[in-house]
Every structure is written in structure tokens, then in C-alpha cells.
């Protein structure tokens, strides 16, 4: 079991544009029953006793909006509202720069408002034995891999496939080192923090916590409608 030397910090990644949803504002600022999607996500960690602090990483042009939400809602754990960048990993780097070695960082998509206490609990428990933790659930569809001609070239065994979710959780020094190596690679590309550890720290195991189909990400308008139904069922 690893010693907890630092704080447990939830990093809410709220820098997306939401262009695929076709809304007038980024999707994390869309409202359901008088509350933004961002607020539901923040509150999942604000109300969890194992979380010491929250950083919100926002688009630079929405930082004041986020600060106003924090002020109005009285979130006591939100310590920093940070500006992200053009790519998702810029948001991760902004949070990493504000944390200390020994801290545990839980990177969570702002547009996954239904993350459960059980998932957060399991992530924190897994971090007692690992330095990097992902969340995923069993894939139910057959996944096909295609070649450049759009023809099937492989059908992986569904039993070993998972759909990735968040939070993705790391000891600060581990994810910082992974990015340090990655940023020196001219071919570096990523949309996923666990992928950075997996590729650039190959000796570091990434444990997978069981996710939940309800911990879904709002990407398209039909996702928003499903989230709305699930939130109302939860109340």
C-alpha cells in the first residue's frame, strides 16, 4: 500500500467547445433543471469527503463565468479556476503545474455529470496500490478495425475491450514525468491522459476501475436528452 503524502485534487476539465452539439455556448454551460452540466460535475466531487480540493480548467473566455458559478453556488473546495489551451492536454498541464508532487489528481470531464460516488471511491482505493488509474466499462458492441480502404482488417476480442471514461487518476509526479517525456517527442498526439502514461512510461501499470454506463459524456444533443432523463430519475 502506498503512503498518501499529498492532497486529493479533482481537476474538472471544462475547456471544450461543444461544437458537435450545435449549441450557442459550450456544452458544459448548458442547463438542466436550472443548473449547468458543469455544476453537476463539480458537485460530485464537492460533496465527496475524500476530495480535498477542486481545480476547474476552463476556456479562457469563460473563466469569469466559471468564477461566478463558483461564487453563487458557494463551492468551498474550488481553489483554482485555470485557463486551458487549444488541446485537451493543455488543460491537464495547467492543473499539473498548480499541484505538488505527492498530490493525487483526478482528471474528470466536465460533461460527465453523473459520475458516481462509487466510482470516485474505487479510484481513490485503487490509488493506494497504483500510480495511475483509469475508469472503463465493458464494451457491448463488436469493434471492427478498418484499413485505409475502409475494409475490415481486424476484429478484436470484445472480452478484452473497454469503453474509457473519467476520472483518470494519477500521482502528480507520475503524470508530470509522462508529459515531460511526451512533449519532447515531435510525433506526440493524445486525447487521453492515461494514454500518455501508457505510451511514455511503459513500466507504469494503469489499473482500470469498473465504470458505469450512466457515467456518460455529453457529445451530441441526444446525449443531453439522455443525461436529463437520468438526472431526473436520480432525484
How would you describe the overall organization of this protein?
With 235 residues, the protein is an alpha/beta fold. It has helices at residues 37-46, 63-73, 88-98, 117-126, 172-182, 193-200, 221-234; strands spanning 8-14, 31-32, 35-36, 53-58, 78-83, 104-109, 132-138, 145-146, 152-154, 162-171, 207-210. The strands form 3 sheets. It has a 7-stranded mixed β-sheet with strand order 5-4-1-6-10-7-11, sandwiched between helices. Helix 5 (172-182) packs across helix 6. The radius of gyration is 18 Å and the shape is globular.
Overview in brief:
It is built from seven helices and eleven strands.
Question: Level of helix content?
Answer: 25-40%
Oligomer category? single chain
Strand order of the largest sheet: 5-4-1-6-10-7-11
Low-confidence stretches: none
Radius of gyration: 18 Å
The SS-based structural class is alpha/beta
User: pLDDT average, as an integer?
Assistant: 93
Q: What count of helical segments does DSSP give?
A: 7
Order of helices and strands: EEEHEHEHEHEEEEHHEH
How far from one another are the termini?
Answer: 37 Å
Shape: globular
Largest sheet: 7 strands, mixed
Which strand-content bin applies to the residues? 15-25%
> How many strand units?
11
Amino acid at each position: 500500500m502506498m503512503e498518501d503524502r499529498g492532497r486529493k485534487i479533482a481537476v474538472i476539465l471544462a475547456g471544450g467547445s461543444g461544437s458537435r452539439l450545435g449549441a450557442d455556448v459550450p456544452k458544459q454551460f448548458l442547463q438542466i433543471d436550472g443548473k449547468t452540466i458543469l455544476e453537476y460535475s463539480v458537485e460530485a466531487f464537492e460533496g465527496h469527503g475524500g476530495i480535498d480540493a477542486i481545480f476547474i480548467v476552463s476556456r479562457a473566455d469563460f473563466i469569469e463565468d466559471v468564477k461566478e458559478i463558483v461564487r453563487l453556488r458557494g463551492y468551498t473546495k474550488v481553489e483554482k479556476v485555470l485557463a486551458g489551451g487549444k488541446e485537451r492536454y493543455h488543460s491537464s498541464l495547467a492543473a499539473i503545474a498548480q499541484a505538488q508532487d505527492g498530490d493525487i489528481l483526478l482528471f474528470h470531464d466536465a460533461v460527465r455529470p453523473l459520475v458516481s460516488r462509487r466510482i470516485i471511491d474505487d479510484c481513490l482505493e485503487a490509488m493506494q496500490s497504483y500510480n495511475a488509474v483509469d475508469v472503463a466499462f465493458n464494451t457491448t458492441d463488436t469493434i471492427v478495425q478498418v484499413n485505409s480502404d475502409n475494409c475490415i482488417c481486424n476484429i478484436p476480442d470484445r472480452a478484452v475491450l473497454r469503453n474509457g471514461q473519467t476520472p483518470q487518476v494519477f500521482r502528480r509526479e507520475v503524470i508530470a514525468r509522462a508529459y515531460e517525456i511526451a512533449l519532447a517527442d515531435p510525433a506526440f498526439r493524445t486525447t487521453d491522459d492515461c494514454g500518455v502514461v501508457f505510451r511514455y512510461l511503459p513500466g507504469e501499470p494503469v489499473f482500470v476501475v469498473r465504470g458505469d454506463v450512466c457515467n456518460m459524456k455529453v457529445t451530441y444533443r441526444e446525449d443531453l436528452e439522455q443525461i436529463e432523463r437520468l438526472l431526473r430519475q436520480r432525484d
